[in-house]
Amino acid sequence: MMKVARSTIGKVFMAVLFGLMSLSLLSFGVPGMTSIGQQNAALVGDYKVTATELDQEFSLELQEEMRRTGTFINRMDALEQGKLEESLARLILRRQMQQAAKDAEVLVTDETVAQNIRNTKGFQDDDGNFDRNRFEFILNQANITPELYAAQQKIDLSRGQMSQTIISGVIAPDLMVDLLRDFEGRARNISYISLSEEAMPVTGEPDEAALQNLYETSIESFQLPERRKVAVLRFGPTDVENRVTVTDEQVLAEYNRQIEAFRVDAQRRFEQVLVDTPEQADAILAARADNEPLQETVSKALPDLDTPVLEVDWTEEAALLPELAEQVFSMDVGDVSGAIQTDLGIFVVRLTGTKEAGTRPLDEVRDGIVAQLKRRNATEALFDFSADIDQALIASRPLEEIAEEYGLTLHTIEGLAEDGTQPYGATRLDGLDYKLVADEAFYLEQGEVSPLLETGGSGYIAVRVEGVTPASTETIDAVHERLVDMWLMLEQRKVAAEAAKVINEALTEGASWEDAIAKAGLEASRIEVKTVTDMTRGDDNGDLPPSLRRAAFELDKEGSADRLRIGNAWNILRLDGLGQVKISDNLEEQVKGALDNTIAFDLLSQYQRLLDQRYPARINYNVVNGFHTPGDS
User: Fold this and answer.
1) Residues 586-622, buried b or exposed e (16+ Cβ, 10 A)?
2) Which of these, 73, 67, 63, lies nearest to 11 by C-alpha position?
3) What are the DSSP calls for 234-273, one per residue?
């Protein structure tokens, strides 16, 4: 099976596996939700939405959003934002469609399910053929049996048939397509310049009165927060590794305690190949030789067969299709089967190994038990270690003395502000929550030591304030150079804004770019005039800011102009011409598809309103509210 794991499953495999996780959770439950239990969160017709299902849908949605955005999402924040209610609405809609499919007696045959499974890209090899080995591996990783997966597929397909019936044949009217095609094909010829504020000429120097005024109006920019020098004693799991031991007696005792978990059913290991006809299977059987690998037999019997022979590692009977299981578990090692007919095709197998039901020996599971015990013992060791240091702190022993005795490092943080920031360029410790340190340090007096505090990642810290620099305001003399720079920046901003206004007005009155720029007192030779022709709304011109493109399409008269500030530059554009271009075939297909999807979405929205009327959901708000206050559930 590990061959499957190492093959080119890639993104497709991960997408299918993530999707199957929800089904697995629905079947086997999620630890930690016993306070909510199996109460119903909602009833829809003959179907129910349990609290466990709601929790799973909510949790999976958070996981998917975190995976998609790459940012952590706090569960309580998501609850406050109404994400739980959105999850419940999705589950209710699924039940409504399931009830509608049942009432409409929508029939999904086993062959349809099998065909859908065979056509799932994640279950196919690189050549697009159904790969039974990959199928089993993915389902096994998601802790789902083929029977459960097939049953869920049948439900999903019945719901899909209902929605497809609503939107099948949806085609946007030609008039709408023509209008949108015309809209997307509208083109603009423009010319534009960009005036960087930093490049604007400024005459004169600021006098002391101007600087004094700027200093007073910007006084908040020169206020310095209170900062503290802090000593931090820090430790975590890595600091107690040398204290963690696992004895043979502990391993044996843990093995005996978990003995039921090590009991296994009978298993078989075999080679398999998928063939097209029973006659091909007969040819393989006829060509077999004693102790010959199936690949060699297949190569002799069917040299043109392009289906690979796969090795299926140790597998229990329940994990196989019934037809395969019946044959495989009745064979002796070395036997080659005839044609095995299944819903997923015709198979030939050769048995390569057997394991009877029994208990896995200690040597086989020792490494896993040792790892469990190390984690458990590390937790206990860290707890004992932290208790020792806590007692040392209570006894008012100096942090330096504690650090030396227990082999720890005493870190120093310079210039820590109450918001956890430091002056620019200050050294920071990896993985340390500086806001947590600041929250504690700003409650302490100079020389005072905090109690032991827990941090993320099972770590601990103790904090001592070494020194305090009070909040203050920088003097005008200390910030004189910064004031001059600020004055220059503001003056350049004014010059650029005025120049953009003058140029824009001159262009609108019909002046050329050269004359308009000169009128603003700038040198035209130092400013590049750029042009864009036949620009449409969908063009992806990397040099042209999107906001400038939008501004161009807001102009509807040749010779008209506009200006807008983007970042630290003023951009002035002139509309030089209007036109119409033929959009690409690809864009036209996108236009049609977007219209079709819009109409289909509208129909489905109406269908959902009808479902709400026909199958109203009864929501148990006690259960829903229990998610917000789990302790009361």
Assistant:
1) eebeebbeebeeebbeeeeeebbeebeeebebebbee
2) 67
3) EE-GGGGGGG----HHHHHHHHHHTGGGGEE--EEEEEEE
Return d(Cα 628, Cα 346) in angstroms, integer.
52
DSSP state at residue 451 = P
| Phi and psi, residue 34, nearest 5° | -65, -20
User: HSE-up of 447 (CA within 13 Å, CB side)?
Assistant: 0
Angle at 217 between CA 211 and CA 220, to 5 degrees: 110
Give the span between the Cα atoms of 607 and 603, in whole angstroms.
Answer: 6
Give the pLDDT confidence score for residue 335 in this predicted structure.
92
Is the separation of the CB atoms in 313 and 351 below 8 Å? Answer: no
Distance CA 539, CA 551 (A): 14
* Nearest Cα residue to 17 out of 146, 139, 120, 99: 139
Helices (H) and strands (E) in the chain, counts: 22, 19
Q: How far is CA 257 from CA 75, 245, 260, 387, 408, in A?
A: 35, 19, 8, 29, 37
φ, ψ of residue 530 to 5 degrees: the values are -100, 150
Q: Which candidate, 367, 511, 405, 394, places its Cα nearest to that of 450?
A: 394
Q: Are 411 and 223 in contact (CB under 8 A)?
A: no
Q: Check residue 7 and give its pLDDT.
A: 36
Segments of the chain scoring below 70 in pLDDT: 1-38, 70, 141-143, 162-170, 541-542, 629-633
The SS3 of residue 414 is strand
SS3 109: coil
Phi-psi region of 559 (alpha: psi -120 to 50; beta: other; left: phi over 0): left
The two tokens of residue 613 are 């009327």
User: What is the three-class DSSP state of 577?
Assistant: strand
